[in-house]
Write a structure and sequence with these properties.
By secondary structure, the chain is α+β, with helices and mostly antiparallel strands. The chain has 7 helices and 7 strands; from the N terminus they run ααααββββαβαββα. The strands form 2 sheets. It has a 4-stranded antiparallel β-sheet. A 3-stranded antiparallel β-sheet has the order 5-7-6, with helices on one face. Helix 1 runs antiparallel to helix 2 and helix 6 crosses helix 7. The protein is elongated.
Length: about 290
């Protein structure tokens, strides 16, 4: 029993150490050299190669323990594979398949800024079951691969710049053109905003009691800029600037009432007077 344990341990550790220290780095360098513009392939190759090395190390441990003959029995191997597949849940298998599709997709790469119904951020790594994404708040979230392949992904921003869109509502009586110009000037005043492309502003829609406009401006790598603080600073400057030039920001909604009010007089009595000459309570007792 001791010989079996020692053989399995030595076979596993030696094989794993050799693969981890020599085989994995060598293959990773080759993959990186041939896929310089696709870091997703590089990280995925390292992940899958590491799993393969672990599997080979276990096989080497089985051989080192003296049970190599088992590996030549096709029926045993088939039964083991059936057990593994049967024990794996449908979601797990789906995540593995989804991960392969994400790795193979040339438009989905590590370092890309993506958006999906659950959030947005920069892709850090694509693993077997999940994708790791860093959010604008510098938080790493783990998203199942199936969620990314089952939903529409947006990547409207390049790796070197990120577009910020800030909607604003002004009153109908205000000078909308002035408001549009002021939004652009406020954006230009921020050193974090890129000069190329130049900030722009647009009239978006007519709401019930206001006109909705929007400022669009670009910043560099979104992970190098605190987007939360950037947006807060922009809104504060817009509020201060609109107050200076007399523009009403986000006017309150109004209600227009129409109709008529009628008063019925019973038996010739004045409204509010009861039959006994006292108040009937409709207009109070006058006290």
């Amino acid at each position: 029993m001791v010989r079996i344990g020692v053989g399995f341990t030595l076979g596993t550790l030696v094989t794993y150490a050799f693969g981890r220290l020599f085989v994995l780095p060598a293959i990773a360098r080759v993959v990186a050299a041939r896929n310089r513009n696709n870091p997703t392939i590089e990280t995925a190759a390292q992940t899958y190669l590491h799993a393969l090395i672990v599997l080979v190390a276990i096989v080497a441990g089985v051989v080192g323990a003296g049970f190599g003959g088992i590996l030549t029995d096709i029926s045993i191997i088939a039964a083991a594979l059936t057990l593994v597949v049967g024990a794996s849940s449908q979601k797990l298998v789906g995540s593995l398949v989804s991960g392969i599709f994400l790795v193979a997709d040339p438009d989905f790469n590590v370092g890309d800024w993506i958006g999906w119904p659950g959030g947005e951020g920069v892709v850090e790594a694509v693993d077997f079951r999940v994708t790791r994404i860093r959010t604008p708040n510098d938080e790493t979230i783990i998203v199942p691969n199936t969620e990314l392949t089952a939903n529409a992904l947006t990547r409207p921003y390049g790796r070197e710049q990120y577009r910020v869109s800030e909607p604003v509502e002004v009153a109908y009586g205000d000078d909308v053109e002035l408001a549009l110009r002021e939004l652009v000037e406020v954006a230009r005043a921020d050193d974090r905003v890129l000069e190329d492309p130049d900030p722009t502003s647009k009239l978006v829609s007519f709401e019930g009691s206001s006109v909705r406009i929007r400022a669009d401006f670009w910043v560099g790598d979104p992970m190098d800029v605190d987007l939360v603080t950037l947006k807060s600073d922009f809104r504060r400057r817009v509020k201060a600037r609109f107050d200076e030039v007399g523009l009403t920001l986000g006017p309150p909604s109004g209600q227009e009432l129409s109709g008529s009010v009628s008063v019925d007089v019973e038996d010739g009595l004045a409204p509010g007077v009861g039959r006994d000459g006292g108040s009937d309570g409709r207009y109070g007792d006058g006290s």
